[in-house]
Specification:
By secondary structure, this protein is α/β, with parallel strands linked by helices. The protein has 2 domains: about 110 residues, Enolase-like, N-terminal domain (Enolase-like, domain 1, 2-Layer Sandwich), CATH 3.30.390; about 200 residues, Enolase-like C-terminal domain (TIM Barrel, Alpha-Beta Barrel). It contains 11 helices and 14 strands. The strands form 3 sheets. The chain has an 8-stranded parallel beta sheet. Strands 1-2-3 form a 3-stranded antiparallel beta sheet. α2 runs antiparallel to α3 and α5 runs parallel beside α6. The protein starts with a strand and ends in a 6-residue tail after the last strand.
Length: about 325
């Protein structure tokens, strides 16, 4: 078998701005990989983990560097090779997911069946992200999201007047479940007191309050809300050191370096008694497709990446009434 692999970069504009504690984005550059056996083509997409120093250009170079190792391999053998030939990150993710897609198409079965799932993927309630902003802006954004049917909102916060922001969102969307994502910005905040206040405002969980590397500070506290690791958890190897500090992990395929490692990370989290969320970076539906399958067995799904862009691919997911669902062939 001969594999023909191509990698390209695409730029997709954000719908408005995407703002978190680390800054704002008006577009996202995506790495798109296509793997062909001459009859079928598998596709994968990756978004560079910028806080780890990745750029889409570096990711493209990584893929191009390993292509000579893969051209005469089967998709499964190629997946095995890249687990050690590439580090966890967006380059390996795009290539790994493209190989999984090709493998499923060669077998003539859905990806879910290839992964051993007994039933097709079902629609999932997904979080919708409310960008960091003034309380009144976040209130208006939350109201609009609730009117569009989203019942789970993920608020970007930054350690400054977070209670005001959450209270404003609660006012704008009184019935919504709320997740707050601090993106490592709570270094000087009393986490227990802040969590108690946010719990009283109806917050369900807190994501990554402290900078990655400061996780040990969570060992001596008993917060009234579950705390999930995001930047502190990339691969299955990270799970052991997070036990007793976090109550859950956010699995993102770009961080993990693909579906192969995403499956291993989910299994490790379950074995350790941790809850799991499957999240995403800004991406099109191509990047979400394997994550949607993985998310079928987790407690929380945060797969709104395509809904935050100004457009999506023609065969993209349907976002309706707060749920993400695969488009039907006749749609």
């Amino acid at each position: 078998m001969t594999l023909h692999i191509t990698a390209t970069v695409e730029r997709w504009p954000v719908d408005g701005q995407f703002i978190i504690a680390r800054g704002a984005k008006e577009y996202v550059d995506l790495l798109v990989v296509a793997v062909s056996d001459g009859q079928h083509i598998g596709y994968g997409e990756g978004t560079a983990i910028y806080y780890c120093g990745e750029t889409v250009e570096k990711c493209l170079a990584q893929v191009e560097h390993v292509l000579p190792l893969l051209c005469d391999k089967t998709p499964r053998d190629a997946r095995d090779i890249i687990q050690s030939a590439l580090s966890a990150g967006a380059a390996r993710n795009a290539l790994d997911c493209a190989l999984w897609d090709l493998d499923a198409k060669q077998a003539g079965v859905p990806l879910s069946e290839l992964l051993g799932m007994k039933s097709p993927p079902a629609p999932l309630r997904t979080a919708f992200t409310i960008s960091l902003g003034a309380p009144e802006t976040m209130q208006a954004d939350a109201r609009a999201a609730a009117q569009n049917g989203y019942s789970l909102l993920k608020l970007k916060i930054n350690g400054e007047a977070d209670r005001d922001r959450v209270a404003a969102v609660r006012s704008g969307a009184p019935k919504a479940d709320i997740i707050v994502d601090a993106n490592e910005s709570w270094g000087a905040i009393d986490i227990v007191a802040e969590a108690e206040a946010l719990k009283n405002l109806g917050v369900a969980l807190i994501e990554q309050p402290l900078p990655a590397g400061n996780d040990a500070a969570l060992g001596g506290i008993s917060a009234p809300l579950p705390i999930f690791a995001d930047e502190s958890c990339h691969t299955a190897q990270d799970v052991a050191r997070l036990v007793g500090l976090y109550q859950g992990v956010n699995i993102k395929l770009d961080k993990a370096g693909g579906l192969t490692e995403g499956v291993a990370l989910l299994a490790a989290a379950k074995d350790a008694g941790l809850q799991s969320m499957v999240g995403c970076m800004l991406s099109t539906s191509l990047g979400i497709r394997p994550a949607f399958v993985l998310a079928q067995s987790v407690q929380w799904a945060d797969l709104d990446g395509p809904a935050l862009l100004s457009g999506d691919r023609p065969d993209g997911f349907i976002f309706s009434n707060g749920f993400i669902n695969e488009a039907q062939p006749d749609q």
